[in-house]
Design brief:
heterodimer; A: Alpha-Beta Plaits; 4 domains; five-stranded antiparallel sheet; about 35% helix; globular; B: alpha/beta; 8 helices; oxidoreductase (chain A); FAD binding (chain A); flavoprotein (chain A); FAD-bd_oxidored_4_C (chain A)
Chain lengths: ~500, ~270
């Protein structure tokens, strides 16, 4: 009770921030009676609940109820951690009959509040489903439980000279099921494409408890509607993904990276064209970091900084990575490119640094990947993950900063930094607003402003983070009324009682 | 009385080309023993030994501090033709010139004593003499950690090993070096010429910037063969077998304290 009281003022503020969220009034809370039933399905070690027999304190549920940014807080009483698909099926079936809302949860590393309950829904953690089911080193097809951590899958396929087609900052905690449910993008998308292409099959427990087994390992299968695509990016609103079949590419034999310092953002696009043309098939990442993001990453110890001389006069930075099959070939290509860039009549770059060792390779990547963490250490981040035309990246960042300034919200009292970084190759900008605290004033200044800017560019309000609880009200900026109406019809067909991840994606 | 002019230092930095596992697979991937059990799996990338990188960085920082007090920084390596890449990295970081003692592609890696003898011959041949040799304290592939000490012995020079801080007085021809020792640091004063071996905390090596990488391509590389120097690099040691540590055997769960005590006793562990 005490802890509830302690958080009350903050929760009130948050509630006003997302006043549009509502759960179907027909959903029931978990009761002692339900726990007795779950105890028949699961061993005691798989049940964490404030109800007997486990009777834990609500603090022990905090890591499940709260997202990692501390922005979204649920009040669930019960977490279930099944080990098998059959157990998931039994649980879901019971919840459907009892009309209990379910929040499927993976690594809980999401950025839009999609993996935590809005109220007191049951949390279904997939963490205990962490076995690799099969791997074929010839085809590279991996079949794994949904709860496998991305990093451990990367480690699993590494001895067979394969890599996961997806890589992101949260790889040490995020789970493959969650990656698929949110259609996570990340750092390798430029090279290997989205999960809509690399996922070959899924096993899903539907909201009535039926197990939909589409866990095929076929690369080609044109036999009717491709149902699995519906669950990729549905954020757990249509069913619980319990197994994933995914195509892993062969591991590159050689990788290099370089950070280039640019005098002006205007040079990013011409640079991208040249890099794409000259590096061709070995280009595996082209990432953009603006100066403020870079300074924050360095300030918070994410990777070793470049020398003062190298960063002087740089307005932004670009990280280029190559991956290929033969080191000498790749290095020659890269060296030619760098020489071309430096010796051009009107150079697009000031200077740059080329990693000379595996340690430096990691350190350069840390400067880019560490921005997320640095921003979270600096203050309370409002994170917008948008797709807009490349040419408008900087305008969107600068425009947002000016907008906040005009509202008197820029400064140490409210918003400290507005930063932009992201995947240039994918047209995906991460716009982060770092504030002292989450307040309704800042929230109202940012939204719908940013969404309107995105809509004016015909962009996406969520390029890779998803809709979750954060952006349900903004869905219409990127999707037409017709699209949303059909999404609702699909939801109604799969989940007529509205128990699956209620309040997420669709209002 | 006018102070005597500062002596111009000549610094030699031996660097080793190393086999490390390619980060493309995974930076933290386990090094595997090859099936013949004669060494590690060669599916690897070549880069400079990290302690040698620290040595190059320290030489460059000494120049930044002492300005014209440092006359030359020369990097030297022993190895097959491709080892020149390692010299280019040292040159891109700020060395002025380099020496490559070239060995055939198939030649085994030279042992510390042979490396030290080779370095002695190179030092003899430097016109302006050598005042300071900065080496990595060990290579991370074979972990031998002896070359610096052997070289000091062969030359009859002083040595400051495991350095975490280096200060040079060019007028007094002295160095004050802080060494990493068990339980803290040891500060020693040494006369030049001197051998210094670097420890991890000495500095953090810089990135090679693109303009410097371009400049490095034009810097001189002097070539020798072991025969030119009159040294024999044939190994004196024979590797019998390289094996991985035994795989960890999974533990078991005990139901209560009594069972635990019983198992500990059975394993021969008793209270002291």
């Amino acid at each position: 009770m005490l802890s509830l009281y302690r958080h009350a003022p903050r929760r009130l503020a948050l509630r006003s921030m997302r006043a549009t969220h509502s759960l179907p009034p027909t959903l029931n809370s978990v009761t002692e009676h339900d726990l007795a039933h779950f105890a028949k399905i699961l061993p005691p070690s798989s049940i964490i609940s404030t109800f007997p027999p486990s009777s834990v304190s609500s603090e022990e549920l905090e890591q499940y109820n709260n997202d990692w940014m501390g922005k979204y807080r649920g009040t669930s009483t019960t977490v279930l951690k099944p080990k098998t698909t059959e157990q998931v099926s039994e649980i879901v079936k019971w919840c459907n009959e009892r009309r209990i809302g379910i929040v499927p949860q993976g690594g809980n590393t999401g950025l839009v509040g999609g993996s935590v309950p809005l109220r007191d829904e049951l949390i279904l953690s997939l963490s205990n489903m962490s076995k690799v089911r099969s791997f074929d080193p010839v085809s590279g097809i991996l079949v794994a439980d949904a709860g496998c951590i991305l990093q451990s899958l990367t480690d699993y396929v590494a001895p067979y000279n394969h890599i996961m087609p997806i890589d992101l900052g949260a790889k040490g905690s995020c789970q493959i099921g969650g990656n698929v449910a949110t259609n996570a993008g990340g750092l390798r998308l430029l090279r290997y494409g989205s999960l809509h292409g690399t996922v070959l099959g899924l096993e899903v427990v539907l909201p009535d408890g039926t197990i939909l087994d589409q866990l095929t390992t076929l690369r080609k299968d044109n036999t009717g509607y491709d149902l699995k695509q519906l669950f990729i990016g549905a954020e757990g609103t249509l069913g619980v993904i319990t197994g994933v079949s995914i195509l892993t590419p062969p591991a590159p034999q050689a990788s290099n990276n370089v950070i280039l310092a640019l005098p002006s953002f205007k040079n990013v696009l011409p640079l991208y064209e040249i890099v794409k043309r000259q590096l061709s098939e070995i280009l595996s990442a082209f990432e953009f970091i603006d100066r403020t993001s870079y300074d924050l990453a360095v300030k918070h110890g994410q990777g070793r900084a470049l020398s003062d001389e190298d960063v002087q006069g740089a307005e932004c930075f670009v990280l280029v990575e190559t991956s290929g099959g033969r080191r000498e070939h790749d290095e020659e290509k890269l060296a030619d490119l760098l020489e071309f860039l430096l010796e051009a009549e009107e150079p697009l770059i000031n200077t740059g640094v080329l990693s000379q060792s595996p340690a430096q390779f990691s350190s350069l990547w840390a400067l880019r990947e560490g921005v997320t963490e640095a921003v979270a250490k600096e203050g309370k981040p409002y994170k917008y993950d948008i797709s807009v035309p490349l040419s408008s990246f900087q305008d969107v960042v600068d425009g947002t900063r000016e907008h906040l300034r005009s509202k008197g919200l820029l400064g140490d009292h409210a918003v400290k930094y507005v930063v932009g970084y992201g995947h240039v190759g994918d047209g995906n900008l991460h716009l982060n607003v770092v504030a002292n605290s989450y307040t309704p004033e800042i929230q109202n200044a940012l939204e719908p402003y940013i969404y309107e800017v995105v809509a004016s560019h015909r962009g996406s309000v969520s390029a890779e983070h998803g809709i979750g609880a954060m952006k349900t009200h903004a869905l219409h900026y990127s999707k037409s009324d017709v699209s949303i109406a059909w999404m609702k019809k699909i939801k109604e067909i799969f989940d007529p009682r509205g128990i699956m991840n209620p309040g997420k994606v669709l209002e | 009385m006018r102070p005597s002019p500062a002596r111009l230092l000549n610094i030699l930095v031996p660097v080793k080309r190393l086999l490390t596992v390619n980060r493309a697979v995974d930076y933290a991937v386990k090094i595997r023993v090859n099936p013949q059990q004669t060494g590690i799996d060669l599916n690897v990338k070549h880069s400079m030994n990290p302690f040698d990188e620290i040595a190059v960085e320290e030489a460059v920082r000494l120049r930044e501090r002492l300005k014209d007090g440092v006359k030359s920084i020369k990097a030297v390596t022993i190895g097959p033709p491709k080892s020149i890449e390692t010299l280019r990295t040292a040159l891109a970081m700020g060395a002025d010139a380099s020496i490559h003692v070239e060995t055939p592609e198939s030649a085994p890696a030279p042992e510390p004593l042979a490396v030290a003898k080779t370095l002695r011959e190179i030092i003899k041949r430097q016109d302006g003499g050598v005042d300071l040799v900065i080496l990595g304290k060990q290579a991370i592939d074979d972990d031998l950690g002896m070359t610096g000490q052997m070289l000091a012995g062969l030359l009859g020079w002083g040595q400051a090993t495991f350095a975490s801080k280096v200060e040079i007085d060019t007028v007094k021809k002295e160095a004050v070096v802080t060494r990493e020792i068990d339980g803290g640091g040891e500060e020693i004063r040494c006369k030049l010429p001197l051998i210094i071996t670097t420890d991890l905390r000495l500095n953090e090596p810089r990135y090679a910037s693109l303009p410097n990488i371009m400049k490095a391509k034009k810097k001189p590389v002097e070539k020798f063969t072991p025969e030119d120097l009159g040294v024999d690099l044939t190994p004196q040691l024979e590797t019998l077998k390289v094996a991985e540590p035994p795989a960890r055997v999974g533990g078991g769960k005990v139901a209560n304290v009594d069972e635990l005590v019983e198992k500990l006793k059975a394993a021969g562990i008793t209270a002291a």
